[in-house]
TrEMBL record:
Residues 2-227 form the ABC transporter domain. This is ABC-2 type transport system ATP-binding protein. InterPro entries: AAA+_ATPase, ABC_transporter-like_ATP-bd, ABC_Transporter_VariousFunc, P-loop_NTPase. GO terms for molecular function: ATP binding; ATP hydrolysis activity. Keywords: ATP-binding, Nucleotide-binding, Transport. Gene3D superfamilies: P-loop containing nucleotide triphosphate hydrolases (3.40.50.300).
Length: 299
């Protein structure tokens, strides 16, 4: 669905995005993580056709996004600072969206009022910041885009609204295969929402992986043996991290769970636990290899 190939963007000789390749399949939710200044906004704006890459291609369904009105009608970009025309109401903004996006769904707009509980006839600038963000979501979800690109959209929303918004995103993806790209500083926030995570660092894509595969491929193991650790025990294991705590050996091991269990059982351990890792733990171990400070993306 979305394909970025070798995308680069330079501002005044500063390379904000460098040779990024990225693919998002239809009906998936892609979480773009990275610290301040990593290049997330720049990348998302190129994806939405708002700024033009210096090099590389940004394609949606095989077509260049830049200056392509047909494609742009199918994409909705929710910026980190939401913008509305001065002195307008939500109702007036809805009429504008309706005139621009053929997919705008009037009935859905009316139905969503029950969720957002905002007065559509009130001037938007009179709402609080969080309420204005809610208004932007209300309009975005009423537009029913094929591709929803969002720049740190959950910042400034209270916990109840965050959950409502997440639920609508998940529902839209499940029901009509909307494709979502969402940027965030916060790994924990993305954990229950995204299918795939990419980490952007200093303009480059440092790491990209499917969450399910990530969770099933790595395990925390605690083992202890009656007469110490057998000599060849760790030889056949793909060990990411190893620590001895008294007589207990703690291992972080890559591999298929059943295969690991079948390998360890014949050594007849006295204690043997195999546990899943939290996403945060997986990142700490995986990113340790490339020297990325995970604290940057856990707020
Ligand atoms: N219009 C511009 N002119 C000059 N430099 C820019 C421009 N837009 C972005 N940059 C620079 O490009 C880099 C990446 O910025 P970008 O806004 O894409 O990062 P980000 O990952 O979204 O950061 P944050 O999480 O802080 O919002 C930064 O160093 C920024 O100063």
């Amino acid at each position: 669905m979305i394909h970025l190939t070798n995308v680069t963007k330079t501002f005044d000789r500063f390379q904000a995005v460098r040779g990024v390749n990225m693919a998002v399949q239809k009906g998936r939710i892609y979480g773009l993580l990275g610290s301040n200044g990593a290049g997330k906004t720049t990348l998302l704006k190129m994806m939405a056709g708002i700024i033009r890459p210096d090099h590389g291609t940004v394609l949606i369904d095989g077509e260049e996004v830049w200056e392509n009105p047909e494609i742009k009608r199918r994409i909705l970009f929710l910026p980190d600072h939401v913008y509305f025309f001065p002195q307008t109401t939500i109702e007036q903004m809805a009429a504008f969206y309706e005139s621009v996006y053929p997919s705008f769904h009037r009935e859905r707009f009316t139905r969503l009022q029950e969720l957002f509980l905002l007065d559509p006839r009130k001037k938007i600038h009179q709402f609080s910041k969080g309420m204005q963000r809610q208004a932007a979501f209300w309009l975005a979800f009423s537009t029913m885009p094929d591709v929803l690109v969002m720049d740190e959209p959950l910042d400034g929303l209270d916990a109840v609204v965050r959950q409502k918004v997440k639920n609508i995103i998940i529902q839209e993806v499940a029901e009509r295969e909307m494709t979502v790209v969402i940027s965030s500083h916060n790994l924990r926030e993305m954990e229950d929402l995204c299918d795939c995570i990419g980490i952007l660092h200093e303009g480059e894509m440092l790491f990209e992986k499917e969450l399910d595969a990530m969770k099933t491929d790595i395990h925390k193991i605690q083992v202890a043996f009656r007469n110490g650790i057998p000599k060849q025990f760790t030889e056949q294991l793909d060990i990411v991290y190893e620590e001895q705590r008294g007589s207990v050996l703690l291992l972080i091991v890559r591999g298929e769970k059943q295969e690991i269990v079948s390998y360890i059982k014949p050594f007849q351990p006295l204690i043997f636990d195999i546990l899943p890792l939290t996403l945060e733990e997986i990142f700490i171990y995986e990113m340790g290899d490339v020297g990325y400070a995970i604290e940057n993306i856990i707020v």
